[in-house]
Every structure is written in structure tokens, then in C-alpha cells.
Design goal:
There is one protein chain. The chain is an alpha+beta fold. It is 20% helix and 32% strand. The protein contains six helices and 15 strands. The strands form five sheets. A six-stranded mixed beta sheet has the order 5-8-10-11-12-13. It has a three-stranded mixed beta sheet with strand order 7-6-9, with no helix packed on it. A hairpin with a 2-residue loop joins strand 3 and strand 4. The chain starts with 8 loop residues before the first strand and ends in a 10-residue tail after the last helix.
Length: 216
């Protein structure tokens, strides 16, 4: 299996002698064949892009919008000083989570772990306590579907947040008894409570400095 350059985009510029016009010809090479976990973990650090992994396939992570980034950083900034004395860690975007040893591997927008195994981790988080995804039109279906199902199957996960990037709206799923998950929606003026780490934040702080499309 040749996986040296997956999803590589090559552009060849041809110059017309008659017109001097440059014509860009773009060829998108096919994604690599299915990988094993071991192949993925060896291959992905060598790539220019980040790739998530699910059932043997890899999926390139595209860049988010400025509002997506602002929301994630606002959340991180609020969480970090609260978590430091608790010997917990919080990471944003570029840190992947191992859902299970066999599959999948995702890059959540914000992840919190207080497990000793994760505190000094260098490659991925294995036992997250909180995961947050910032929703956009391109990611909402996956965040509410595939990722929702897989994240909630992790025994360590206590809370899963879906943060809307187009309006002030947050949804929190909190682990209850047995297999039960409790649902808490938040809107303008609400205080978001993260019970697993005894943390509260005004919803407006998540959206501080965020410019919505309707306001442009």
C-alpha cells in the first residue's frame, strides 16, 4: 500500500506560447487504501494536514472559521486557570482523542482530561472527562451523529458539549445513572455548569469577540 502522499493536490502550470496564459491543472490523487491503526499512527505525523481515523479510513481536517477558533479559545482560556490546581489538562483542536484502541481517533475542538495517564501524554488523549465540539454547517451532522455516538461510548467521558458558531446556543450532555445521558440546552443569559469539574461560565463569555455572519 502506497500512502506516502494521500489526498495530495498537485498543480502543474502550463504556459501557452501563443497567449502566455497560465493554465492551472489540478489533479487530486486518491485517498490511500484502508489502514491499520499502527499504519495510521506512524503515517499521520508525517503529513502536512491532520487526519481523523475511523474504521480503517482517514479523513483530512480542514481549517475552521475565525468564529470557530474564537469560541474554542474563549472556552480554553476560561478553563485553564480553573483546571491547573486540579491537575487536569485542557487542549484545543490539534490534540487527538483515542476513542478505543481499535478505532476511531478524532480531533475535538476542546478536550479536558484529569486522568494521570493523560497528564503527560504526548500522542493522544485516552480518557477525556469533557469534550466540546464547535458546530459549523460542514461539521454539525458528524458532531451530532458519528462522533456523538462514539464519544458517549467512552467510560471516562462525563460531559459532551455542542457549541453553535452561528448563534448563542450551547447543548450539554451529562452522564447520568447507568446508560442515561441528561440534556441541558443553554441560550443568551444562561450560566453553563460543568458539574464534573465544578465549573461555571456565563454563555456570553464563550462568544466574547465573536462576529456572527448576520452582524457583518
Amino acid at each position: 500500500m502506497n500512502v506516502n502522499n494521500p489526498a495530495l493536490v498537485r498543480t502543474k502550470a502550463l504556459k501557452s506560447k501563443q497567449t502566455g496564459i497560465l493554465i492551472a491543472m489540478i489533479a487530486i490523487l486518491q485517498q490511500p487504501d484502508k489502514m491499520t491503526i499502527e499504519e495510521y499512527l506512524e503515517w499521520e505525523p508525517q503529513q502536512d494536514l491532520r487526519y481523523e481515523y475511523f474504521n480503517g479510513e482517514v479523513f483530512a481536517m480542514t481549517g475552521g472559521t475565525i468564529p470557530d477558533n474564537d469560541i474554542a479559545l474563549n472556552f480554553y482560556t476560561a478553563l485553564r486557570p480553573h483546571l491547573r490546581p486540579r491537575v487536569c489538562r485542557v487542549n484545543v483542536s490539534d490534540v487527538k482523542v483515542q476513542v478505543s484502541s481499535s478505532s476511531p481517533y478524532y480531533y475535538p475542538d476542546v478536550v479536558v482530561s484529569c486522568d494521570p495517564q493523560d497528564i503527560n501524554a504526548r500522542k493522544f488523549i485516552q480518557k477525556p472527562k469533557i469534550i466540546a465540539e464547535v458546530l459549523s454547517p460542514g461539521t454539525s451532522t458528524k458532531d451530532r451523529g458519528e462522533k456523538f455516538t462514539n464519544y458517549l461510548s467512552m467510560p471516562s467521558l462525563q460531559e459532551y458539549l455542542l457549541i453553535n458558531s452561528e448563534k448563542i446556543s450551547v447543548e450539554r450532555y451529562c452522564r447520568g445513572e447507568g446508560r442515561m445521558w441528561l440534556y441541558y440546552p443553554y441560550a443568551t443569559g444562561d450560566i453553563i455548569t460543568l458539574s464534573s469539574i465544578e465549573f461555571e461560565i456565563a454563555i456570553e463569555l464563550l462568544y466574547e469577540g465573536v462576529v456572527f455572519e448576520s452582524e457583518e
